[in-house]
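pasting for ref
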Amino acid sequence: MENMKASEKFLLTIREASVYFGIGEKKLRRMAENNDGGFAIYQGNRYMIIRTKLEQYFIHLAEKGGAEDGESDTGE
């Protein structure tokens, strides 16, 4: 099971999701804590990301045309 590709897994750790989606771990952890898209579960002492739900959440954000938390890419 350890050798499975992230694209084949249902649940990803914050680190795996960070690499898979190209998002910083800190940003992804904040997103998981807020869990606006319903893509994160808290299991034991860590957040796990439901990969397919996070993919759907990003598609929804792209269609909506806005940043997830109101931050721009320029940091303004």
